[in-house]
Specification:
- This protein is an alpha+beta fold.
- The protein has a single domain, classed as Beta-lactamase, CATH 3.40.710.10.
- About 25% of the residues lie in helices and about 15% in strands.
- The chain contains eleven helices and 13 strands.
- The chain has a six-stranded antiparallel β-sheet, sandwiched between helices.
- β3 and β4 form a beta hairpin.
- The longest helix has 16 residues.
- Keywords: Signal.
- This is Beta-lactamase family protein.
- Pfam families: Beta-lactamase.
């Protein structure tokens, strides 16, 4: 009996000494709701930087992914208001070289087609054109184009590569570098602190960055090595990471207009509020009307993009064939979603309810089955929780 008891105690002691695997820090997640006159954080949780165990705060800057395309559309519409660009004009007139589908050399490509992903461009040839490479050369690759239909008639195809073209056109038309143009037309009028690829943002702003992690815990983006004073733009090997000699209108891909905006959720909510209120500091009334106009349902499109206009998505929950089930209600909303580097984000405006939400959540697992363009369980859960908290009138200061 004594031998058995001694052996049992030794076994228990051995089990007790086995260290437990440390729990992963909670993913960073922030949700901010807004209405016509107020902006209110309702969910602020998790770690902005696991290496230092720095908690996320309400307005820490994060890479918002494709919501950046909506920011780009606002800058484009501002130049329309200023008479510097025409949405339906051949973009070759601005670029100084012919942008043409190789199978349809006589068919022009327009800003409206590019912003609405109906230009025949596709991402099969890639969409990052680093400093030191030619934007023009990218589109000599047949893989960059949809085969079988010309620009304007091709089916909707979500193409990130169209954004560098749009941004470069805006540079050529205005004479302004893209990051400075967006600052002048979108951020500065609203007193928002934001930037593209960390260019032009203060060092203390960059130091508050939300680091993006994969669900495995692997760092995906915006750790210290990805931020100033390090190089923050794509460059060809052997090319100096320096924009002093950059000529606007040559290759705005370096600013990642398709997804490179860094901004906090409070400031993103303020931008959404300005769109909701049709703030004249951004656009004239016709510009807002054109921006918000939903395009007809897109036959054969990814379910997330059943309605897509000038870099603005419209959610129609309950519509057959559309995977628009982000919110617990069936209100129609417009805005844009973001997905990249383990992050899911969104800026959504309910025009009837006169309210909206800006949010992000990190470390979201990759889909286990083929991605059909829908929303993740993690962002659905975050949005549902944010809506429920907002309905109780509670929030975070």
């Amino acid at each position: 009996m004594r031998l058995f008891l001694t052996a049992s105690l030794a076994l228990l002691a051995g089990c007790a000494s086995v260290p437990k695997a440390p729990a992963s820090p909670p993913p960073a997640a922030v949700a901010v709701v807004f209405d016509k006159g107020s902006v209110r954080p309702v969910v602020v949780e998790g770690m902005a930087d696991r290496s230092t165990m720095r908690p996320v705060t309400t307005n820490d800057p994060v890479r918002i992914a494709s919501i950046s395309k909506l920011v780009m559309a606002l800058a484009a519409m501002r130049l329309v208001d200023e008479g510097k660009v025409d949405l339906d004009r051949d973009v070759s007139d601005y670029l100084g070289w012919k942008l043409r589908h190789p199978d349809y050399p006589d068919v022009p490509v327009t800003l409206a087609q590019l912003l609405s992903h109906r230009s025949s461009l596709r991402d099969d040839a890639g969409y990052v054109i680093p400093l030191g490479e030619s934007l023009q050369a990218k589109f000599t690759d047949p893989a960059a184009w949809y085969h079988g239909a010309p620009p304007g008639e091709a089916p909707f195809e979500y193409a990130n590569v169209g954004s560098p073209v749009v941004a470069t056109v805006l540079e050529a038309a205005s004479g302004e570098r893209y990051d400075r143009l967006v600052e002048r037309t979108v951020f500065a009028p609203l007193g928002i602190e934001a930037c593209l690829n960390w260019i032009g943002c203060a060092q203390d702003f960059a130091e508050r960055a939300v680091v993006l992690y994969r669900s495995t815990g692997e760092v995906a983006r915006d750790a210290a090595g990805d931020r100033p004073p390090n190089c923050t733009i794509p460059v060809v090997e052997g090319t100096a990471c320096n924009l002093d000699d950059y000529v606007p209108g040559t290759n705005a891909s370096i600013f990642s207009p398709q997804g490179g905006v860094r901004i906090g959720m409070v400031d993103l909510a303020r931008l959404g509020q300005a769109i909701l209120n049709e703030d004249s500091r951004l656009l004239d009334p016709p510009g807002f009307a054109r921006l918000k106009r939903p395009e007809s349902p897109i036959a054969g499109s990814a379910p997330l993009f059943c309605f897509y206009g000038l870099a603005v998505q419209t959610l129609h929950p309950g519509l057959a064939g559309c995977n628009d089930d982000l919110f617990p209600d069936v209100a129609r909303r417009y805005g844009h979603a973001g997905e990249a580097y383990g992050l899911r984000s969104g800026l959504w405006i309910d025009p009837e309810g006169r309210r909206g939400i800006a949010y992000f959540v990190t470390a979201v697992p990759e889909p286990e089955v083929e991605d059909t363009g829908g929303f993740s369980d993690e962002e659905r859960a975050l949005v549902a929780r944010a809506v429920e908290i907002a309905s109780r009138g509670k929030g975070r200061d």
